[in-house]
Request: fold
Amino acid sequence: MQNATNNLMNFYQTKTNMEALYTKTIPNYSSLYNLLKIEEFNCALAYLVDNKKHSNLTVSYKKHYIEVSNEAITIVLLLFVGFTNQEYKAFRSRTNLYLITFDKNLATNRSKRLNVKYYNQLSLLFLPTRLTEDEQIRRLHILNNL
Reply:
């Protein structure tokens, strides 16, 4: 397992193409993408939605969503309204497909048609502190109980 402490410290220093794409709209999405590239966080997201541990997850971005996937699971994290029916058809046949969002409004508008699940973004921040083997990071889990 990667050294979670070093990954977290380098998190804000990473620049990506996604950052350039979202800087003028919502720069927090580039931070979310960089966070999900860290193994502890993408594995925690998979555990959050599927209640099973997954590894070897790849993270990619599209115009309206971030995809976290491997051969056993596909998680589509919707960011913006504009996710098209054609994009949905491209991966709806995959097994263990989860359409999720951290935006309550987006979940409400799309949930009936696409079965989009809403998750609180804080759960993504605190779940890795419970799942990691790094003792210093595990100590952060007590903040969740304050």
Notes: Residues 43 and 63 are 23 Å apart (CA to CA). The mean pLDDT is 76. Helices lie at 4-10, 17-22, 28-36, 39-50, 85-91, 104-114, 121-131, 135-138. The radius of gyration is 15 Å.
